[in-house]
From TrEMBL:
Residues 1-39 form the signal peptide. Keywords: Signal. Residues 34-75 are annotated as: Disordered. Residues 42-52 have a biased composition (Pro residues). The lineage of its organism: Bacteria, Bacillati, Actinomycetota, Actinomycetes, Mycobacteriales. This is Fibronectin-attachment family protein.
Length: 75
């Protein structure tokens, strides 16, 4: 009386197919990444327009405070 084995035979082609799938996936990624790395960046936004009117007629900026001068916490 012939009975089938309780433990099925090892699939010999499984490891080879997994290796080929991993290799093809790695190849696809390595081919896609250089094109992404060389992509042109998006253009920067335009700077805001200058203020209206002549800003030179407003006068020079105020002088800086003297060093060591009396501040809010000086005694």
């Amino acid at each position: 009386m012939d009975q089938p084995d309780a433990k099925p035979a090892h699939r010999k082609g499984l490891s080879k197919s997994l290796v080929l799938a991993a290799l093809s996936g790695a190849t696809a990624v390595s081919l896609a990444l250089p094109t992404l790395a060389q992509a042109q960046p998006s253009p920067s936004p335009e700077p805001p327009p200058p203020p209206a009117g002549n800003t030179f007629l407003e006068g020079p900026p105020p002088p800086p405070p003297a060093p060591g001068g009396a501040g809010p916490g000086a005694r």
